[in-house]
Every structure is written in structure tokens, then in C-alpha cells.
Amino acid sequence: MYDVMVLVEEELSLPDAEELVQLYAGTQDPVRFHVLVPSENAQAEVEASLTGLAGTDLFGMPSQRYAFQPDEGVERAAKHAQEAADAQATAALNRSVERLQSLDREADGIITHRHPVDELVDYIPRGNGQEVVVVTRPHVIAELLHVDWSAQARRHLGVPVLHLLEQHSKE
């Protein structure tokens, strides 16, 4: 079995899944895809938003002296936001896996709250990954500066990394 780790920014569209399967059509060993979908860190997003609201511009005070202190309501809101983000990431993962399986390929996957490349570092040995495919929207500046996920993965992983630009159709 040849195991390919697939890091996606958004769910795999049918054209993306077809392209991915086509890349490995001529391999001798059967290919299994392990899809990794990031889930947003809702706690950090809520805190950053509220800190920005309570910053210097709103009250005319130095934000360092009045650092944001989350209360129960904020914690509850962050928990609900995280649950919603996880549900969205899980649904995207399930649709991506189903698309690959509909093309007669073995596929599974996980969602992660960690930085995607950090998760790949740990996920590759668990999934016996021999190659990584990163599927994202174009990020011209990040790619130019070599700080995009595929460039980071190449620096941190000991396996080949391929970067594909996602197609728009999510059918």
C-alpha cells in the first residue's frame, strides 16, 4: 500500500479528487489517501476580536494596561464557535473522503486544531505516509516568500511534497 497524506485548505472538490486520483493512476501498489483538514482555533479568534474591540482606539487607553480577560460568557461563546468550526471541518473532511472513495480509492482522514504542517509531522508516521500533496487556493505572496504550507512541509518533512492549486467546483 502506498500512503499519501493530503493536506487541504478547503474540502476537495470533485475535480480536485479526480486530479489527485489521476496522479497515482499508474502506480503498482494500491494508493490510500489520508486527508488532513485544519479546523480554526475559535478561542484565539474570539479573544483577538474582543481584544481589538477593547483596545486603545475604543477607549483611548493603552491596551497593555487593560489586557483582555475572558469571562464565562466569552468562554461559552468560544466553545460554541469551536464546536461550529469543528463541525464545518468534519463535514468538509467527510465530503472529501467520500469523493475519493467514490473514485474507488481508499481514504480516511482527520481534522486538526494545530498548525497543519506540525500535524503532518506527527501524522506521517501514524499513517505510514510516503508522500504529501498540499491542495490550496493560490497564495501568491506566501508562495513567493516560501512560507506557504507546501514550502513549510518541504522544509520539515522527509517525504516528497507536491502542491496543487484547488479548482473551484465543489460538486
Question: What this model shows, in words?
Answer:
The chain has seven helices and five strands, in the order βαβαααβαβααβ. The chain has 171 residues and is of the alpha/beta class. Strands 3-2-1-4-5 form a five-stranded parallel beta sheet, with helices on both faces. The radius of gyration is 19 Å and the shape is globular.
Overall body shape: globular
How many strands in all? 5
Strand order of the largest sheet: 3-2-1-4-5
Structural class: alpha/beta
Number of helices: 7
* Strand residue content: 15-25%
Low-confidence runs of at least 5 consecutive residues? 56-61
Helix content class: 40-55%
What profile does the largest beta sheet have?
Answer: 5 strands, parallel
Write the element-wise H/E pattern from the N-terminal end onward.
EHEHHHEHEHHE
- Could you give the distance between the termini? 29 Å
Average pLDDT level: 77
Rg = 19 Å
Topology summary:
Blueprint: E1 2-8, H1 14-23, E2 31-38, H2 42-53, H3 56-59, H4 72-102, E3 106-112, H5 116-127, E4 129-136, H6 140-144, H7 149-156, E5 161-165
Parallel strand pairs: 1-2, 1-4, 2-3, 4-5
Helix pairs in contact: 2-4, 5-7
Provide keyphrases for this structure.
single chain; 171 residues; alpha/beta; 5-stranded parallel β-sheet; 7 helices; 48% helix
